[in-house]
Design goal:
Blueprint lengths: L14 E7 L3 H13 L3 E5 L5 H5 L15 E2 L2 E2 L11 H15 L3 E3 L3 E5 L6 E5 L2 E10 L6 E2 L13 E4 L13 E5 L3 H12 L4 E4 L9 E2 L2 E2 H8 L34 H6 L3 E3 L2 E5 L2 E4 L3 H26 L21 E3 L5 E6 L3 E2 L5 E2 L21 E3 L16 H17 L2 H4 L12
Parallel strand pairs: 1-2, 1-8, 2-5, 6-21, 8-22, 10-19, 11-12, 11-19, 12-15
Antiparallel strand pairs: 3-4, 6-7, 7-8, 9-20, 13-14, 16-17, 17-18
Helix pairs in contact: 1-3, 1-8
Length: 438
């Protein structure tokens, strides 16, 4: 598969009622509903459909949630393994098949470089193909733009190979020797397992990510959670409110049919665990002494999910096999504070501490003090601007194959209502449109 950027030779119309930026699952879902409403639009994709799945995932990558949760608009997973977990190339094929069904007005290979509000109103969208005007703009680019690498990375010895999770492909890519994986979110623990299964000595810096059961009391845990309504939990009802958008997802894996990940078991198998990375100096890595706390807190979330399921089973009078109480199979004698890279034989580091969004190309007052977009269910306070495909856009299911259809349908409904309104009403601030957001 070619990962090369191929600029488009297409041409832009001077004006569109709606410009959708991003041709992934979110942008294609928006296009599906826009076409249903008969709303003229264009979808601008910087590279090609499925680029991030195709080019920014490792070789053994697969979904963490089961295939039955793949519910793009009018295009649910229809394969033979609804309880399975699609591999990377299968995900790409699913997305490409959805695009073929939608037949969106898509232009691939076009980069949007600036979105602004001219004095005449509407939006000016500057791209690598030229500039067009739009009445509405849907930003469906996701929030994984810039790989995060800590500032202390520059202090590593020059012979230590560094890769971010977005560039990791397989164990053979790294030089022989031990590997330090920094970060214990979904990517970090799955890459750790990939390396461990290949026989590499792995060291893992464990952060604050929570973990989840995979199968509990006879059913896949995500089936229980779906039945309990967890994926429909809205951000305004979450105890953390908007802060939920900045929390790390629970870790588990779909590898080899799916299983939970207990870092304590990997420690018994030889993986070396440490707390949160703190600094790097003179070939010495220092860690915060929070390994015990991080493991305990991840286990508490794991156990709380089990308790929620237990309560649901009891209240509903369901019959389900009993499970043994959770037990810690390993605990650190002390929280290790340092690691000598050379003494441990470490030759490479994989950074798996996430990404940050890059919205500098949106020249509009649509962001908070941290650079995060402000919105209510994806509708920005900048009239005519929308965000789609982000975690917790509205519910826990937002940003996933499971929930993006509902979010896209809602936003297109708002757009259709505004396009149908008298012109003098279209430029009203967000508060005037509140009834459409309920």
């Amino acid at each position: 598969m070619s990962n090369a950027f191929e600029p488009s030779t297409a041409t832009l119309a001077p004006h569109y009622p709606v410009v959708v930026i991003g041709g992934g699952q979110a942008g294609l879902s928006a296009s599906h509903y826009l076409k249903q409403q008969g709303i003229a639009h264009v979808v601008l994709e910087k590279r090609r459909v499925g680029h991030s799945w195709r080019s920014e995932r490792w070789d053994s990558f697969c979904l963490v949630t089961p295939n039955w949760q793949c519910r793009l608009p009018d295009f649910p997973y229809a394969g033979p393994q609804p309880q399975g977990f699609m591999l990377r190339d299968e995900i790409v094929a699913y997305l490409e098949a959805f695009a073929a069904k939608v037949q969106p007005p898509l232009i691939e290979g076009v980069a949007v470089t600036r979105v602004s509000r001219p004095a005449a109103g509407g939006f000016e969208v500057e791209t690598s193909l030229g500039t067009c005007r739009a009445d509405h703009v849907v930003v469906a680019t996701g929030g994984y733009d810039i790989p995060i690498v800590p500032a202390c990375a520059h202090a590593l010895p020059a012979d230590i190979v560094q890769v971010h999770s977005v560039a990791y492909r397989n164990p053979q890519q790294l030089p022989p020797g031990g590997v330090l994986v920094v970060g214990s979110g979904q990517s970090g623990v799955q890459i750790m397992e990939d390396l461990h299964l290949a026989g590499r000595q792995v060291h893992l810096a464990v952060g604050s990510a929570p973990r989840s059961p995979r199968v509990y009391r006879g059913r896949e845990a995500t089936e229980w959670l779906h039945e309990l309504g967890f994926y429909q939990l809205t951000v305004d009802r979450h105890p953390l409110g908007d802060e939920a958008r900045h929390k790390t997802n629970h870790y588990m894996t779909g590898r080899d049919g799916g299983h939970e990940i207990d870092l304590r078991r990997f420690a018994l198998e030889g993986v070396k665990l440490y707390g949160t990375l703190d600094d790097i100096r003179d070939g010495q890595v220092t860690f915060k002494t929070d390994l015990t706390r991080n493991l305990d807190e991840a286990d508490e979330v794991y156990c709380s999910i089990r308790r929620d399921i237990d309560k649901y089973i009891a209240n509903a009078g369901l019959e389900a096999p009993e499970e043994a109480p959770f037990e810690k199979v390993w605990a650190p004698a002390a929280d290790p504070a340092t690691l000598d890279l050379r003494a441990a034989g470490i030759t490479s580091i994989v950074w798996a501490i996430g990404f940050r969004a890059d919205y500098r190309w949106i020249d509009l007052p649509a962001f908070d003090g941290r650079g995060h977009p402000r919105f209510t269910r994806g509708v920005s306070p900048v009239a005519g601007l929308y965000f789609l495909g982000l975690p917790w856009l509205h519910t826990w299911g937002s940003g996933r194959f499971l929930g993006v259809a509902d979010d896209a349908q809602h936003l297109v409904g708002v757009i259709a209502q505004r396009l149908a309104a008298p012109r003098e009403d279209r430029a009203q601030p967000q508060r005037a449109a509140e009834p459409a957001l309920t």
